Amino acid sequence: MSAGTAPHEPGTAAAGVPRRWRSVLPHLDEPLPADLPPEEASGEDVHINLPMELVRQSLHTREFWDIPQEVADAYRSFRPTPLWRARGFEAAIGARVPVWVKYEGSNISGSHKLNTALAQAYYYKRAGVRELVTGTGAGQWGTALAAACAMFGMRCTVFMVGSSLEKKPYRGVLMRLLGAEVHASPSDLTKVAAADDGSRGNSLTLAIGEAVEYARNRAGAAFCIGSGETYSILHQSVIGLESEEQLAAQDAEVDAVVGAVGAGSNFGGIALPFFASARGAGRRPPRLVAAESAASPKLSRGVYAYDKTDATGTSPREAMYTIGSEYRIPDSHSGGLRYHGAAKVISALRHAGQTDAVAVGQVEALEASRKFTLHEMTLPAPESGHALAVAARLACQDGGDGGTSEKGVLVCLSGHGYLDLGAYQQLLAGQLSDRDPDPAVLGAAMAELPLVGTPAGAEALLGGAL
Q1: CATH no. for residue 182?
Q2: What predicted TM-score, i.e. pTM, was given to this entire model?
Q3: Whether the Cβ atoms of residue 376 and residue 89 lie closer than 8 Å to each other
Q4: Which of 132, 199, 220, 439 is least surrounded, with the fewest CB atoms within 10 Å of its CB?
Q5: Interatomic CA distance for residues 75 and 88, integer angstroms
Q6: Range of the structural domain that residue 64 is part of
Q7: Phi and psi (nearest 5°) for 318?
Q8: Residue 13 above 80 pLDDT?
């Protein structure tokens, strides 16, 4: 009896594996803002070697992209993933409307990250790259890339945020089991870590910066990122495409779609196909709600500005909702949500008022996960707990403030929590607390960033209604 299947209704996987990815770019009101040059001139090129097919997937307004046969074959080992109505969770929270769950934790990496890791490893190998180097926060992305590299016969090197690796040592074990070389960040291998004054220590920004520098200096290696890039969100569209078919097969309808947001890949994966389908049919899209960590509230408290994506300062600056790449994000069990900015696509939709954002503390998130575990017999990752907490709010309110669902809520359970039991141990022991970021410190981190435009007004923020 596998987690995520036994207690759920029959017929959960009515659809097959999608044959094509779906891009949201043709349905945006405006093209994505162009990147700005790097903030710091380094005299060295960033050694990314991005395959041209990934470049095309990021820029071209083609809507449907064929999934390569080798990637589709790999998907079939774990896709389609289960979708079920969480009746036990509904009863426990007193929901007024159905709560539907799309579960992405049933593969070797334990998360949705494998959807893009397999695609990227395929394209990089075709481009002649022999080693992929990356940074990872809670370890899901590093594990997924290690698995994809093993499948396609490539080397893999991972820089994992040190505090996360300390709390989740078995993530490191699993990555090494899959053949990856794993380093705690800050490490003693890079100049960017040596130059850090402690303000960015134990941050995903620094781990990514180390990976960028390390890849630059190794022959046959390329830096690879798993969440914020437009092509990675395209690859994740299999989540939403399957969900649409699975809901239709059960004559179910939802008017809210929820996903957790670090940079935005699982939220984009589940939500943007619904947005594209509605736009293509001339219908109003469901409410798309991004659940973020209160420790790094870029979409609800950040600014729409140009910012760095990593600590080296040598990569192009992207238009994003950000709390500032220099902001030191407090340690918490939000794991992969501890990133300073949101993806370009997610940020553009946020700026246009087409997505909403709600910040959730780690205690509320883990309590939602605990309740879900008790009543659905599936243990969510802490990141997914943030989405469950928001889904519970949407499903339970009376509708008087506009921040509710009237038909049903779909939530992406982006991964399992079996390698995050340390967080749940602290929850059970009453050792967790939340502390909101200091507004003055947040303001200082964002003060010098060049704005893209006027951020969405307070009246457009669903966060205020929840």
Answers
A1: 3.40.50.1100
A2: 0.91
A3: yes
A4: 439
A5: 29
A6: 20-33+52-71+110-230
A7: -110, 155
A8: no
